[in-house]
From TrEMBL:
Domain GFO/IDH/MocA-like oxidoreductase: 133-252
UniProt name for this protein: Gfo/Idh/MocA family protein
UniProt KW keywords: Oxidoreductase
Annotated Gfo/Idh/MocA-like oxidoreductase N-terminal domain residues: 5-122
Similarity remark: Belongs to the Gfo/Idh/MocA family.
InterPro entries, per database record: Gfo/Idh/MocA-like_OxRdtase_N, Gfo/Idh/MocA_domain, GFO_IDH_MocA-like_dom, NAD(P)-bd_dom_sf
Length: 334
């Protein structure tokens, strides 16, 4: 059996405990060997519950562990840059939770540090590793939908009552665009294979949540007259969808960004009035993400998404935030 990539987890965030750690543990090529928290008792308790051999009371101690090949960073957004760079300098490969950073400038520093250290760096957009997105790209490329005309993405949920969450803290990189707007933005870039030229975004900044954007609706202008319209929110009813529209047909993706690993996943293709279902068996996209990461590190496979992709996504997010704050159309530099 091929060697497994040995992971350390930097923090006991809900996304780590509920999704990413179980995903790595269920993957073919990964194992979680250590977890760290600034609260040593919390790290020890989490390690015991999840069957992780080692726990540490500091992130520095985790980075000093020679048995750790790669780290997963689910820390609050404002800490991504610091700990990605420190992990790289310690010789660890890095899977960094989205949003990759606070802005494109930070993203460039992170990618440069990892390139200097010769370590693999990836952003934790797990949905992109599910084979349904390869199939969606194949359908678009085949011309079955005709010419691409537009994309609409929606990702909303209501967690507004939890006012102590870092997502509602400006200094920590809170807000709906950072937290979930990045999903439809990255998905549109993925399916079009191009970069948007301008952004126009309107947002609801809540005085009850440290002034962060609790809801945002936007338009991204892609080359060729193609547009992404999207909305994202943390104070709205739940939605998690993507629609891709062509001149002859369309694709509808329910559970577009987060899907149940224990249930089949589907999307629907409608061409000239005829609708069909494209179905995939249950699979864990967090496990697929871990296996793709391990293939790059252990087998020297080419990454599906290069480090520069995260810089480009942050560049778009920068424009969206500027547009929302200034209530103006913002041209995205290339």
């Amino acid at each position: 059996m091929s060697r497994k990539l040995r992971w350390g987890v930097m923090g006991c965030a809900n996304i780590a405990i509920g999704s990413v750690i179980p995903g790595i543990q269920q993957s073919a090529r990964g194992e979680v060997v250590a977890i760290a928290s600034r609260d040593e008792s919390k790290a020890r308790e989490t390690a015991g519950k999840l069957g992780i051999a080692k726990s540490y009371g500091s992130y520095e101690a985790l980075l000093e562990d020679d048995s750790v090949d790669a780290v997963y960073i689910p820390l609050p957004n404002h800490l991504h840059k610091e700990w990605t760079i420190r992990a790289a300098e310690a010789g660890k490969h890095v899977l960094c939770e989205k949003p990759f950073s606070i802005d494109a400038g930070e993203a460039k520093e992170m990618t440069a540090a990892c390139s200097r250290a010769g370590v693999h760096l990836a952003e934790a957009f797990m949905y992109r590793h599910h084979p349904r997105y390869n199939k969606i790209q194949e359908i678009i490329a085949s011309g079955e939908l005709g010419d691409l005309r537009g994309i609409h993405g929606a990702f909303t949920f209501n967690s507004s009552a939890n006012t102590g969450n870092f997502r509602f803290n400006q200094a920590m990189g809170g807000g709906a665009l950072y937290d979930i707007g990045v999903y439809p933005i990255s998905a549109a870039r993925l399916v079009t294979g191009s970069e948007p030229e301008a952004a126009t975004v309107h947002a609801f900044f809540s005085e009850h949540h440290d002034g962060v954007d609790m809801m945002a609706s936007g338009l991204l202008e892609f080359p060729g007259g193609i547009a992404l319209t999207f909305d994202c929110g943390m104070w709205a009813a739940s939605r998690n969808t993507l629609e891709i529209l062509g001149t002859d047909g369309r694709i509808e993706v329910p559970s577009a960004y987060v899907c149940d690993p224990n249930s089949p996943s589907v999307f629907y293709v409608t061409v000239r009035g005829h609708r069909r279902e494209v179905k995939f068996p249950p699979m864990n996209h967090y496990s697929l993400q871990a296996d793709d990461f391990a293939a790059v590190v252990l087998d020297e496979a080419a990454p599906a998404f290069g480090q520069q992709d995260s810089v480009w996504n942050m560049r778009v997010l920068d424009a969206c935030l500027e547009s929302a704050r200034t209530r103006s159309r913002v041209v995205i530099p290339h």
